[in-house]
Amino acid sequence: MTTKSIRNFYINEEQSIYLLSHHDAKKHRQWLNICKKQLGMLGYKDVELVGSGAFGFVFAGVAADGNHWVFKFSRITLAQSVRDRLEDEAFMLSQIHNPMVPKFYGFERIKKQGILMMARAKGEDLEKISLKRGRFKAHEVVALGLKLRNVLVDLREHKNGMSPQPIVHGDIKPSNIVWDSLSESFSLVDWGSSVYAQQDAYGQPVASNIMDLMSSDISQTNARMGDVYFIGDEQMSGAKSSPRFDEQGVASTLYALASAQSCRFGAQVIPASSLGLPKEFAAVIDGMLSKDKLTRDKAGDYFIRNMPTIAKAFLPELPELKRKANIPFWLSDKNEKPDTVVYSSRKQFLRRADQNQQLRDVNDAQLDRYYKEFLFDTGDTEKAFLASISRLAKYPVVGGLSFHWKEEQLFVESSLILHDDRLSRAFTDAVNATVMLAQGISQKGLFKCCLFDARQTIQLERDATGAFIFDKLPSLAFDVVDLKASEVTRPHSYFEDGKDPDEQLQLPKQIIQCVFELNQIHHTGCIIFESLENRLKIHHYYRLLDASKELQFKTLLDRIMQYAMSIEDVGVAGFMKLPYKNTREFSLCEKQKESYYPRNPKDILNSEATKSSV
Ligand SMILES: Nc1ncnc2c1ncn2[C@@H]1O[C@H](COP(=O)(O)OP(=O)(O)OP(=O)(O)O)[C@@H](O)[C@H]1O
Predict the structure, then answer these.
(1) What is the 3-class SS of 515-550, one letter each residue?
(2) Which end of the chain offers a freer environment for a tag, N or C, measured as fewer CB atoms within 10 Å?
(3) Pick the residue with more confidence: 336 or 496?
(4) Which Pfam families match (predicted)?
């Protein structure tokens, strides 16, 4: 590779591309195309973007000899010290020779841009698979448990010559495991948090040679932060690196896949013992996710020692009970899938859940910036609940949700439209996990979120005087579904919830008046005005439920757009309308009840066979 040929490999911060300004979106697309083109010019065929994470973008291509390569680029927007980690990642990857780890091919640094080259792991990562399939079945989780246990053993037994030199991956989670369903094998990718362990599993120092002991400051941790949604308490609190870190990543991964969540934090409310897993296996996972270190370590030892036996159990696939979503959702047959983004009242929610009162004196701008850090101080169940809302937004879905915790009850109002019926089962699991987690929150309060299609977001730039630039005023789109009058019950009002303290934007009075008039027409939807110094974004989705009012509805939406042109203030304001008839009531539930894989699966299979032969 020559310096010149890959000079332009610069990729900016990720968001939904549809929410970037026109200029930034264009630049982002250009960069992606340049990357693809340059890799093409270097002789790689079928170049495609295969993944992106917090630290980089990952492309794949086929070399002239037919081998599949992967190119990982660090994000240029990150601090240099963070970007330098790609070189450390390259070093660690080059040290590992294991069939379950992609082969290292090389590292290049072109100006500030590092590029790590390695073999492409076959298949798809387990987070993507989990989003498509929903809860993994008992035999799948157990089989994966054994494979991951074997990787942990390999990493612990790594040697430098004759000396033990255990390796910590440091970021084991579903999206870092690429699974090939044909060969039922996987690869562990993303070695960016990997280090040589300083301690063994029992806290004894590891020093592969005397030089290590002399050169490194052994009182300091060399550990790296992994994904805060999956790492265990020791790694989070900056303890010395140990193989225990990866035990925690494995337990979190198995738990997340079994429960259709994207983090480990739900385990108090939805324990592994409630997920239909074999009893012994569930107890090990719950033990490994315990808050008590001794219990965790004991369960970890048990996992390493007994997983080969546990995995020998006969776990045939059982006939599935038809899953029902705890809150309803509708399927849309529209071809175009939304690029879903969620907007929620999470700041206020976090403030309430802030048990240590550390957020009290923090203003909103800081809260945004340090959002991740603040999450550390929030209760586990609240974290899991927020993560489950983000998981919903990974589906092509639009709609809104409102959770209201009252004395002994949880009330959920919803309007959700899923745009891909193949994802119904998985989405049902995700929705049910969200409801169960909400049932586990005892604090009184309200949480609202809207899920909208970023593709429909209207963006208008301001000129130097602050006036909006456009040739023709864009209009707010809406769907029309005619519901029978008998199905229309008391409409939910936009204003019932009062003013949201996180929404600072003062809207022109006329907009409020239009929204008030809209409220008289039967519909669901949301509209969020996000006013920045140089542009205005209007996120929205609307579903008119009374076709006879189409003209009136459209006129009101057009008027909203006209009045929006007089917005001068900066901030966010929004309204959401949900159909009142869908309010569901749930009792609070601290911990879901036990449910295990049956001891005698054959009995169930036989009784099913008898039923079907009758
Ligand atoms: N060698 C590989 N073969 C196939 N796919 C890969 C490979 N490396 C990475 N990927 C894909 O790219 C995605 C992002 O890669 P990676 O996790 O290394 O990036 P990252 O920026 O460090 O992510 P994170 O934010 O999760 O730490 C992975 O989830 C996986 O889907």
Answers:
(1) HHHHCCCCEEEEEEEEECCCEEEEEEEEEECCHHHH
(2) C
(3) 336
(4) Pkinase
Spell 188-206 as b/e; 16+ CB within 10 A means b.
bbbbbbbbbbbbebeeeeb
Ligand 1 site, residue 70, Cβ cutoff 6 A: yes
| Token pair recorded at residue 334 | 């529209």
pLDDT of amino acid 232: 92
Ligand 1 pocket residue status of 55, Cβ below 6 Å: yes
* 66-75, 199-208, 307-316: range with highest mean pLDDT: 307-316
72 is in an annotated binding site: yes
Please indicate whether residue 176, judged by its CB atom, sits closer than 6 Å to ligand 1.
yes
Query: Each residue of 210-239: pLDDT tens digit?
Result: 555 555 566 688 888 888 889 999 998 889
- Give the confidence band of 127 by pLDDT, cuts at 50, 70, 90: very high
Helix (H) or strand (E) segment spanning residue 418: strand 409-418
What is the set of domains in the chain, with CATH numbers? 4-119 (3.30.200.20), 124-310 (1.10.510.10), 330-587 (no CATH)
Structure tokens at 114: 């590092």
Contacts of 582 by beta carbon, 8 Å cutoff, 6+ apart: 327, 328, 413, 414, 415
Could you tell me the distance, in angstroms and rounded to a whole number, from the CA of residue 213 to the centre of ligand 1?
33
Averaged pLDDT for residues 186-198: 93
Alpha-carbon span 270 to 255, nearest angstrom = 10
Q: What is the mean pLDDT of the chain?
A: 84
- Looking at the DSSP assignment, which residues form a beta bridge with residue 565? none
Q: Is the CB of 189 under 6 A from ligand 1?
A: yes
CA of 58 to the centre of ligand 1 (A): 6
Average pLDDT over residues 283-301: 97
Is 412 a pocket residue for ligand 1 (Cβ < 6 Å)? no
- Output the residue whose Cα is nearest ligand 1's atom 23: 53
The ipTM (two decimal places) reads 0.95
Query: 506 CA distance to ligand 1 centroid (A)?
Result: 42
Could you give the dihedral angle defined by the CA atoms of residues 546, 552, 557 and 562, in that order, rounded to the nearest 10 degrees? 180
Q: Among residues 394, 387, 389, which one has the least CA distance to residue 418? A: 394
Residue from 224, 246, 237 nearest 89 by CA: 224
Q: What is the pLDDT of residue 333?
A: 77
